[in-house]
What we know:
Blueprint: H1 7-15, E1 33-34, H2 45-61, H3 66-69, H4 75-83, E2 94-96, H5 100-114, E3 120-124, H6 129-140, E4 147-151, H7 156-159, E5 164-170, H8 182-191, E6 195-199, H9 211-214, E7 218-221, E8 236-239, H10 283-293, H11 301-323, E9 329-330, E10 342-346, H12 350-359, E11 362-363, E12 365-367, E13 371-375, H13 383-399
Parallel strand pairs: 1-11, 3-4, 3-5, 5-6, 6-7
Antiparallel strand pairs: 2-8, 7-8, 9-10, 10-13, 12-13
Helix pairs in contact: 1-13, 2-10, 4-10, 5-6, 11-13
Bound molecules: pyridoxal-5'-phosphate (PLP).
Residues 99-101, 128, 130-131, 170, 174, 199, 201-202, 222, 235 line the site of pyridoxal-5'-phosphate.
Amino acid sequence: MAEAMSREALAARDASDPLAHLRAHFALPEGVIYLDGNSLGPLMVGVRERVRQVVEREWGEGLIRSWNNADWIGLAQRVGGKIAPLIGAAADEVIVADSTSINLFKLLVAALRLRPGRRVILSERGNFPTDLYVAEGMARLRDSECQLRSVERTAIEAALDQSVAVLMLTEVDYRTGERHDVARLTQLAHDAGALVLWDLSHSVGALPIDLTRAHADLAVGCGYKYLNGGPGAPAFLFVARRWHAEIEPVITGWMGHVRPFAFDTSFAPAPGLARLLSGTPPVIALSALDAALDGFEGVTMRAVREKSVALSELFIALVEAQCSEFGFTLASPRVSEHRGSQVSFRHVNGYPIMQALVERGVIGDFRAPDIMRFGFAPLYLRFVDVWDSASALRDVVASGVWREARFARVATVT
Ligand SMILES: *Cc1c(COP(=O)(O)O)cnc(C)c1O
């Protein structure tokens, strides 16, 4: 084991890594090891070129003609179709629009309407805050008569009763990286007569997902994490085809109209998922995401997952071997099947230690109260990066440099 973990052995492993060539698609800054792709994916070379082309040619020269000539109007569907194979969906079951938060709202309202007589949105207490906030806000809407029930992770199954309209969960926990069994929970929800809404923000682009096989109903996910679509990239939503005829949009904007350019005076939904579009799409951001998704072409999610597990296991082994006396405890599940693509360690001084590590060029992040997160995105990370990160972490704690006052200052975004 010790030998297999030497830096030389890991460099050899990089040389034979079947995904190694993909790193060249990323415009990573010199001297940085980026372990935060689970929060904001890095810039890709193709994205930079595409954004320039969209701004200068399509917008600058094409002007309004580009809605047709560059098919800006079809981007939401086209980009959705590129995400579909990453989540085990058909091209017409995925569309890109708005933010994850707004898509959650749209799909929660739709789910409640598909389950008349049931009022409960069931979720877990540790779910990503925006998911819970959106459900809370819905419950406060006049006449919505819905209610959020959030329970501990271990109590989800028992809470699935006849009052539950929709079970809303995030596949991979944003703090610990713990992963739910999508197929099993979907089955349990269906057995109780409820629909399921999966948030794939921390899994899409990092783990194999098969919504069709899981028989999932609804899903949402982020465009700017492992999909590398850029800060604030639009999000996606998935609706299984069996619901397409029945699903009702709550934000009945003109882009969801069957004939937006007929300018009818009342709303009539477009066929299929287009009815869940609301307003004019963010063309520049959508184009960036479109170009980023080309990075997944010819790459199997199985290969991505294999490397993600290998990188994560290596990091855990190295940190535990080199930093054990410094008070780190693994917050992520030890068994890789139960983990997403991130490794989290708890440490009472996690915040300043992470700031000191970032100053050394190893970028991870921190979630209160004590979680240090390290994301392992297999498209651009090397095995030697994992070695260098663990060794930088050891230096930071062994030298005590993190105790310097400037590392304790908490920024707005952590
Ligand atoms: C990142 C993330 C979001 C982000 O929501 P936005 O509305 O796009 O900001 C939502 N849910 C989960 C689980 C996330 O990890």
